[in-house]
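Deliverable D4.2, example record:
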Amino acid sequence: MLTAVACPGMARAPRSAAGSSPAAATASNRATDPDNELDPCSGYTFDGVSLGMPRSRVAGVVSIAPVPASQSLVAGFEESTFQFRAVRPGRADEVQVGFEPRVKDPRVERLRARIHVSKIDPWPASLFGALGSPRQAIVDEWQWWSPSCGAALHLVKVGQLGSGESEPYILEIKRMATSNK
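Output generated by the structure prediction step:
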């Protein structure tokens, strides 16, 4: 595993889906928080990537690399998954993006992220601030959806194995079945 750099309170950075780190997936992408003042749907955007964005635009926001189908964690998009890593002090995100299959400039259909957060980082409080109260919640699991944004978000706090100061989460964002977006 790689040791996290400039992430106080974090013991280790997450591994890439392939178990190695392709150059594009380890580029210096910056982990970001939603800004609900600019866009009420920003809570359904992750590290600058949102549903419906064409891959060419995503590549302008973050450095992405293809994921082998056998290592895709985005169900239903195994043949069209790309990944990137984003970091900032106190947080490291490993993100897989599922694009429309077999389209010239495919659009984002689904995101899945593994997020490691230290106590000094404002996330996930910033996510809760942008999205408000979850529509469904059980212990360490929350769900939001918005017909006007055409998106659903599922967040799970993962139990930690061993020592370490970071808190791991899994986040998934997908289009709502009834969305026109």
